[in-house]
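Input/output pair, single chain:
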Amino acid sequence: MKKLLKLLFSRAAFVALFMLLQLFVLFSTLFYFQDSFTTVQTISVALALVTVVYIINQDGSSAFKIAWILPIVFLPLFGIPMYILFGKKRTPESQRTKLSGMLLRYRATARAVSSRTDDVAQVSAEAALQSAYLERCAGAPVFRRTETKYYKLGDELFPAMLEELKKAERFIFMEYFIVEPGVMWDAILEVLTQKAAEGLDVRLIYDDMGCIMTLPRNYAKRMEKLGIRCCTFHRFQPVLTGTFNNRDHRKICVIDSEVAFTGGVNLADEYINRRERFGHWLDCGVKLHGEAAYSFTLMFLAMWDYIRHEEDDPARFLPRRGAFEGVRDDGFVQPYSDAPSDDEAVGETAYINMLARAKKYVYICTPYLVIDNELMNALTSAAKCGIDVRMITPGVPDKWYVHMVTRSYYAPLLRAGVRVYEYIPGFIHSKTMVCDDEYGICGTINMDYRSLYLHHECAVWMCGSSAVADMKETFTETLTKCVEITPELYRGRPWIMKLGQSLPVSYTHLTLPTNSRV
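Output:
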């Protein structure tokens, strides 16, 4: 009963009620004018034509355009308001300009760092092309002199992160989609509070939507009282608008610009299997020790300055002189970020580049599979060329409707020869791609429309690093706990699932506010 009362009087319940009220007013207004059918119909048809022309002339995926054109043409009274509220994937122009300015400033700093682009070209022309794209379009320098460590479970990443946090001497920056009090966050908060008391610059960014069910509204003020500088990304307002689709989905922990962590693991107990929600939670992350960690410092500062209206001096946060003596070269390491404030789909293109240049195999882990034609073509084309393309998705979903949509994409993949597996013990939250024993990507970028187009994301591209071999080994181990979805098995799915997967309106584009565990 206490949990029910807490939910009913929570901020999330208020937001949901207020938004439902707005929808009720909207549709009531439409019905009120139905007596003037001829006039309303004429106006709605004219508006539909204008809206369709506008959509056609926008940049972007054809599949995205068609998904909105159909309801606008056939149900303009409902389709047009829905498109205005939820259809625009770009952030507002004022926010785009401001954030783009911050990103450009920090990318200029990143370019001033000694990038090892020429060294990549000497090792592999294929790798050089992939690396050059990230450097040119994401402002991401490539590094050597960085040791990589891959963690196949959040259970393993957590103690390693805690240990590194305790070693901090200058600053700690943390940026996460979800923060929730419990074993994991309480232990981390204790260290952050202690370090702040010692005079270190400790900062925390969390996404307001991601934490709407896990943190109270004034949590940032609580952190400030503890000496931890804190802010929330895109403070959520209970107003019907598409801007809540643009979330900060990144997971960044950077310490003294010398050590950094990223991956799928948020700061909540299910990510380390201290709390079971959807069976065994399989997640992963990577630690960088060396020069590449500075890239995550710059990513964090760009976001911090955007939210707080500040301008930090990046030179203040350079690694200490001599900090990396004894750090060995561990291949090439290139951290990068992706933002909806520009028109460059960096996360998707990085995946496509790896698929296009594969020679033997590509192994993929993703919790969600909601992709456009470009990525679908890249996956199927690679398989048709004889590349061993395999993909693991969850066996136990965290959201049944998203899982249903994910499964709807199996058919064309299976026909092309892509091998699809589902993780039987629970939910796989890892976002990884490993290729030919040479390249690997580990980060926060799901293979779904929100991650690829709407969210702020980050990842690490690695070439010849020890983490790449560990990623492959983990993938093959995980296959033993999966069931392969054969064409016969897929055709035998229940009719109700087939019906649901055939519905034209899906999670792909209508991303209503939820406390998604992503």
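The longest strand covers residues 201-207. Residues 504-516 have pLDDT under 50 and may be disordered.
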